[in-house]
């Protein structure tokens, strides 16, 4: 059974990643940054968690204003560092844990927290900057744990309230505890502390408020849920209000915790702070956890018995991502052009396996569904290769178009193809 073995809070300023990449550990100005992380590194080396559940916010790198969401759970099998303008950092990608992520998603939805799910998106400094100092990377061949990221949309109001974040943490605790396999999970909340990086107020800090916040986070976290976002911004700077993500981590810990380590250093714009805590009371109500385990499956119970029906689950979306993504890319005129002119080149550029190429080459509509392609990619492919929707329905049923049309009230035909076909 999965257990939460500890909680980490850390700033996620780009300074941390820069210090690591520029090897500043012996520079007296930079040294305190490294020292603040040593007790956390030692603790992680000793406890050896299997997974770090990592709460962060992206900085309009992979999550932009074209689609901004509150709680986005990373369900992918690998996460790469993002390119934030000057190329990605030279650090290894980290493995995700799709099975745990799917379980958490189901258990959160059962507790009325609806999430969005992401994969194949780079993680920016909000994630990889502190990650590269939390772990003694030089002592490992790659990352010694897997990572499940949670991206919290704290940049575009209305953002999740502090109370919502705290309650999310509490629900997350039960979601993780209800995972049936033995897993040691550590929760990391990142961001803050007091800082502002935009406008005339850029450079704002308040170390006294930061100290009070850290104390209340340990001893009286519920009082921190009563503060509004504007009040957090007044006390700790507009961007400092991202500290609600620490509250999310704290919600996932037991009501009482013991603080094992705390450090604070303010070299420039943003304090570099770390905290490490463990539960100080038992908080694992087995009956409640068992009830959640049942509720999380309730909505889909019986779906597996529906003949000819293939739900596009997180597991499917991760396993068949390459092929679904290839077909989804057909919504872009430049990708479509390559496919229409030279399918084999398009397959090659997308790195499709031979099995995947055969399915597309043969317009094997039923085979594509069985493989894990969602129907709406089929109708996109149909639009490109001039196969109307009813022909695809007939093929999936294993019928001729004529026989299929006999089952309809009207023998009509249509597709989602737009202006390309009108111009042809
Ligand atoms: Fe941030």
Automatic annotation (TrEMBL):
Pfam families assigned: LigA, LigB
Record Gene3D superfamilies: Dioxygenase LigAB, LigA subunit, LigB-like
Top-rank taxon: Bacteria
Residue ranges constituting the Extradiol ring-cleavage dioxygenase class III enzyme subunit B domain according to the UniProt record: 8-269
SUPFAM superfamilies in the record: LigA subunit of an aromatic-ring-opening dioxygenase LigAB, LigB-like
InterPro entries: Gallate_dioxygenase_C, Gallate_Doxase_N, LigA_sf, Xdiol_dOase_LigA, Xdiol_dOase_suB
Keyword Translocase in annotation: no
Domain Extradiol ring-cleavage dioxygenase LigAB LigA subunit: 323-409
Keywords: Dioxygenase, Oxidoreductase
Segments forming a coiled coil: none
Enzyme class: oxidoreductase
Protein EC: 1.13.11.57
GO molecular function: ferrous iron binding; gallate dioxygenase activity
NCBIfam families: PRK13364.1, PRK13365.1, PRK13367.1
Name listed for the protein in its UniProt record: Gallate dioxygenase
């Amino acid at each position: 059974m999965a257990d939460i073995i500890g909680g980490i809070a850390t700033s996620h300023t780009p300074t941390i990643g820069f210090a690591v990449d520029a090897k500043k550990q012996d520079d007296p100005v930079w040294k305190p940054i490294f020292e603040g992380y040593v007790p956390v590194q030692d603790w992680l080396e000793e406890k050896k968690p299997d997974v770090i559940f990592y709460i962060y916010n992206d900085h309009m790198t992979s999550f932009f204003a074209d689609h901004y969401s509150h709680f986005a759970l990373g369900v992918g099998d690998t996460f790469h560092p993002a390119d934030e303008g000057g190329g990605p950092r030279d650090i290894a990608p980290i493995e995700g844990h799709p099975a745990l992520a799917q379980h958490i998603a189901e258990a959160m939805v059962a507790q009325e927290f609806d999430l969005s799910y992401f994969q194949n998106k780079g993680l920016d400094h909000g994630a990889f900057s502190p990650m590269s100092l939390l772990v003694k990377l030089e002592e490992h061949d790659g990352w010694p744990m897997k990572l499940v990221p949670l991206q919290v949309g704290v940049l575009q109001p209305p953002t999740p309230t502090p109370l919502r974040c705290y309650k999310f943490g509490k629900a997350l605790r039960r979601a993780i505890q209800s995972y049936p396999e033995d897993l040691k999970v550590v929760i990391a909340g990142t961001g803050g502390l007091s800082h502002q990086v935009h406008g005339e107020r850029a450079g704002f800090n308040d170390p006294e408020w930061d100290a009070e916040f850290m104390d209340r986070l340990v001893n009286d976290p519920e009082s921190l849920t009563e503060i509004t976002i504007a009040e957090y911004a007044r006390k700790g700077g507009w961007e400092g209000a991202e500290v609600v993500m620490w509250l999310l981590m704290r919600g996932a810990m037991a009501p009482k915790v013991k603080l094992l380590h705390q450090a604070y250093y303010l070299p420039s714009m943003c304090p570099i702070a770390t905290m490490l805590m463990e539960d100080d009371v038992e908080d694992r109500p087995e009956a409640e956890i068992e009830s959640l385990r049942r509720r999380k499956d309730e909505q889909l119970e019986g779906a597996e018995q529906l003949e000819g029906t293939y739900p596009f689950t997180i597991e499917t979306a991760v396993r068949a991502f390459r092929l679904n993504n290839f077909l989804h890319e057909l919504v872009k005129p430049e990708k479509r052009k390559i496919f229409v002119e030279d399918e084999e080149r398009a397959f090659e550029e997308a790195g499709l396996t031979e099995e995947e190429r055969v399915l597309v080459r043969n317009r094997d509509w039923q085979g594509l569904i069985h493989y894990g392609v969602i129907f709406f990619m089929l109708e996109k492919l149909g639009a490109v290769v001039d196969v109307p929707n009813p022909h695809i329905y007939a093929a999936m049923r294993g019928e001729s178009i004529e026989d299929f049309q006999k089952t309809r009230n009207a023998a009509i035909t249509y597709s989602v193809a737009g202006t390309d076909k009108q111009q042809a």
